[in-house]
Amino acid sequence: MLKSELDELIEESFEQAKKICVCEKCYKEKATPLIFPVLEQQKVILISESPYNFPPPEIIERRKFHWTKYFKQDLECFIYCELGPYLISPRSQGVPENIFDFISLIFYPLLKECETKEHGIRIFLDNVYWTHMAKKSLKNIKNKDSATRKCISSLCKEFEKVLPKARLMVAATGYFCTYYIGRSLSDILYQYQAEKVMRGSLLSVSDIIEIAKGATVRGKKRELLEMSVRALEKNKRCLVAFFPNPSPRNIPLLRCFFTRRDVSGDECSLLKILHMEIERIIHE
Questions:
Q1: What is the mean pLDDT of the segment spanning 2-13?
Q2: Which residues lie across from 48 on neighbouring strands?
Q3: What separation in angstroms does the CA of 69 have from each of 6, 30, 31, 74, 200?
Q4: Residue 160: Cβ within 10 Å count
Q5: Residue 128 bridge partners (DSSP)
Q6: Which end of the chain, N or C, is more open, meaning fewer C-beta atoms within 10 Å of its C-beta?
């Protein structure tokens, strides 16, 4: 990837960020949001929980200006120093130890032939729209639920652009299950998704809309759920794969999940089905 190409992607990300991060009384006002560009050819959506430790709190505290002053330098550093090294030599099996390791594992078919960091960055960003439930880091935030709820409408706006053309969505956060489906992550992983995998397929957006309609939530949560369902209706045929949040603090849960036979085992496993679907998307 040429420096000019990366600069162009970062500029597109910056314009996207200014449209998305417009909440009043942000839960972390001075922090930079981690937002990537929406590109026409992207057919996969990755939703993770939040940009953990981005930027580090000690850096944020020293800053005197609005995050827009630092966005471009922060994103360039993140892409090259944090994300890039994981986009070469991916592996098709194993237990991810962090979000970057998770990306390497989940998108193995996409990244397996990338020999340089620059090539991996180009391939990943060209094909995957990566976003978060919470657009800024949740580190040191006491009420993470409240902070995440502030970003629900932002994700709905993103779906207007990216969901209609998407073939696959990968959700690696329980917050998506809570606010978009009205169910717990455990229910989705071990009941609804497991049943689909046993039959050799993934859940679809149509499936999760039906699950959401049966959710017993009230008041503000019901309003958020209904808004989320309306956003999902942009593309009911899009397939969806769910995973636990690949955070270092979740290693015991990740180890239990990724060592299950229906997740990483024989031909009829979640990872095998997911990798086959990514292969199909690549070769369309």
A1: 85
A2: 132, 172
A3: 18, 10, 11, 10, 48
A4: 10
A5: 44
A6: C
CA distance 161 to 184: 27
Residue 150: Cβ within 10 Å count: 16
Per the structure block, which two tokens stand in for 75?
A: 């994103």
Q: Cα-flanking dihedrals φ and ψ of residue 130, to 5°?
A: -100, 125
**Which of 48, 44, 69, 46 has its CA nearest to residue 59?**
69
32: closest CA among 10, 6, 47, 48? 10
- The torsion of the CA quartet 63, 67, 72, 73, rounded to 10 degrees, works out to 10
Amino acid identity at 129: Y
Interval 182-211 mean pLDDT: 96
How far is residue 225's CA from residue 238's CA, in Å, rounded to a whole number? 19
Residue 222 to residue 179: CA distance in whole angstroms:
9
**Calpha distance 202→197 (Å, rounded):** 6
CB-based contact 234:227 (threshold 8 Å):
no
Q: How far is CA 82 from CA 75, 161, 229, in A?
A: 10, 27, 33
Q: Which residue carries 């706006």 as its tokens?
A: 157
What is the strand order of the sheet 239-242 is part of? 128-132, 44-48, 168-172, 239-242, 203-204
DSSP-assigned states of every residue in 31-46: SPP------TT--EEE
pLDDT of residue 86: 95
Q: Which residue has the higher pLDDT, 133 or 267?
A: 133
Bridge partners, residue 168, by sequence: 44, 239
Q: State which amino acid sits at residue 94.
A: G
pLDDT at 219 over 80: no
Please determine, for residue 265, whether its predicted confidence score (pLDDT) is greater than 90.
Answer: no
Is 229 within 8 Å of 209 (Cβ atoms)?
Answer: yes
